[in-house]
Specification:
The protein is of the alpha/beta class and about 525 residues long. It is built from 17 helices and 14 strands.
Length: about 525
């Protein structure tokens, strides 16, 4: 951290101050570099360094310039971090290049607005550079805007700062404050580093900043050693099936029969497992279309072997003419989970009918699933209740904890084949690891093309299958009981702390002004 402090202190004033185009370029470069803090690169110290660079680049600039530099930082971060959406929209779904680039640019711009607002608000609330800005205003604003991004307009919490620390001592804050609590710790660490590197900071204040920085990281390390939950049974053998069906042919009628035969054969080789899990939409047909000739015999075999099956399959409700992205359980206890948090502009289109007609006229791909209930009965498999999520849903920690403390383990079925062999796959695995850590539960992750994995209650990957391979991952998981603080309080503490930091900052600056220390 001392080397980073020297580096930050070496940033010339001309790069930071109003009108410095070089400073704008450095803000964009720091945003692009931030992506390396996340999977698959996992260079977690870069998260603190990049945010600290951005904070220092806000010295001596106007609110408007701060917003611009925050926007450039966010735009570069998301352009580099979610470029894989091009694969799903153009290469897999077949949308025209112009529409793909337009949608991707729009999403990147919207995401960049959040970092722009965080920087602008931080400078507006704390116009003077110093401890009030770096240790209170900017970290609090960044965390609140990141939290807002996680739910506003259905939310897009991808690349939240906290995910980058799944392998660092700061991970200890996850079971207490969730991923946004770690984001606050990262932003505060960046502020402390910015404070320690500033030329006008006195030696005593510089030492104090580094001491607090060490305390933040030490506390995270100590919390990481705490076991908030406990085993509730003997290890259970599970098999996770990775069919590796290319997305380009998955729904091709000629691939239908071979796909069903593949999953049946892979399953038949692992009837010794207590639980077998197939990925999202493993069956490329609606449940009623394969119930009698495929699912019924499969369930009969499962019961004969004392095995439970979790299968991803779309469901058509003929009574309401609604379509659901679902997981069904076969074996000891039949049940259904319908996906609740759908992906906008992918699984549903929140647009008027005339837009849908235009999409059909232009022969553009789209789908429209119905949303499952927010509260659904837990599926009973392998003798325990399981908290099931489908693909993108595991990015929302406040929704995953709804299954707790009843759920003894978590299950996520995904199909990341939409994103090819890109960094989206390890990024998604990183998110799943955070959910296991927040919940204090094993998470079993079955995917179509990867990365299929067994994740323990501490967020560590126990076993995994390589991506783009066909096979079955067999291992054991342990059912858990008990609750983490995050399960009880959710995001309320970190939001309250962030707001409290802003209130303290206002009181502090007001007191200094009355005492004549600030103008």
């Amino acid at each position: 951290m001392s080397a980073a402090s020297v580096f930050l202190g070496a940033i010339p004033d001309g790069l930071r101050r109003h009108g410095g185009i070089a400073g704008d370029a450095l803000a964009a470069a720091a945003g692009a570099l931030l992506v390396l803090a996340f999977a698959p690169y996992a260079a977690y110290p870069l998260a603190i360094l990049c945010i600290a660079v951005l904070f220092r680049l806000l010295d001596g600039v106007s609110v408007r310039r701060a917003a611009w530099r925050g926007f450039l930082f966010g735009a570069a971060e998301f352009a580099c971090g979610i470029h894989w959406l091009y694969i799903s929209v153009h290469e897999v779904s077949g949308a025209p290049i112009w529409l793909t680039l337009l949608l991707l640019a729009a999403l990147v711009a919207v995401m960049a607005v959040y970092s722009a607002l965080a920087c602008a608000l931080g400078i507006w609330l704390a116009p003077r550079a110093g401890a009030a800005r770096w240790l209170l205003a900017l970290p609090a604003c960044w965390t609140l805007l990141e939290w807002l991004r996680g739910w506003f307009l259905t939310g897009f919490p991808w690349l939240s700062l906290g995910y980058s620390q799944i392998g660092s001592p700061l991970r200890g804050y996850a079971p207490v404050f969730g991923v946004f609590g770690i984001s606050l710790a990262v932003a505060l660490s960046a502020g402390l580093l910015a404070s320690a590197s500033a030329r006008h900071t006195r030696l005593r204040a510089r030492c104090a900043s580094l001491a607090v920085l060490a305390a933040v990281w030490s506390a995270g390390g100590l919390l990481a050693a705490v076991h908030w939950t406990h085993p509730a049974g003997a290890p259970v053998q599970v098999s996770l099936v990775q069919g590796n069906i290319p997305q380009s042919v998955k729904w091709d009628p000629q691939t239908f029969a071979p796909t069903l035969d593949l999953y049946r054969k892979l399953t038949a080789e692992h009837w010794s497992s207590r639980l077998i899990i197939w990925p999202e939409s493993a069956i490329p047909a609606y449940q009623d279309e394969v119930q009698q000739d495929y699912l019924d015999p499969l369930e009969k075999a499962a019961r004969a072997h004392g095995t439970d099956l979790l299968i991803g399959v779309p469901i058509h409700d003929w009574k309401t003419d609604a379509y659901y992205n679902s997981v069904i359980s076969l074996g000891g206890h039949d049940g259904v989970y319908d996906k609740y948090h759908l992906v906008p502009l992918a699984e549903y289109f929140p647009v008027p009918q005339w837009v849908r007609n235009w999409l059909e006229l232009m022969n553009l791909p789209y789908s429209d699933f119905s949303r499952g209930a927010a509260r659904q009965p837990l599926l009973q498999v392998a003798g325990y209740p399981a908290g099931v999520s489908i693909c993108y849903e595991d990015a929302f920690g406040n929704e995953i904890i709804r299954a707790l403390p009843q759920a003894a383990f978590l299950v996520n079925v995904s199909d990341d084949g939409w994103f090819g062999d890109s960094i989206a796959l390890p990024q998604h695995l990183e998110i799943a690891r955070m959910r296991a850590l927040e919940a204090g539960r094993y998470l079993l992750r079955a995917t179509n093309t990867g990365i299929t994995a067994i994740i323990d209650a501490a967020g560590h990957v126990v076993r995994t299958l390589p991506k783009d391979t066909r096979g079955v991952l067999t291992g054991t998981f342990t059912p858990y009981a008990g609750s983490t603080p995050y399960r009880w309080l959710g995001n309320f503490p970190v939001v309250s702390i962030s707001i409290g930091m802003l209130l303290v900052m206002r009181l502090w600056t007001g007191l200094r002004r009355r005492m004549g220390f600030a103008k």
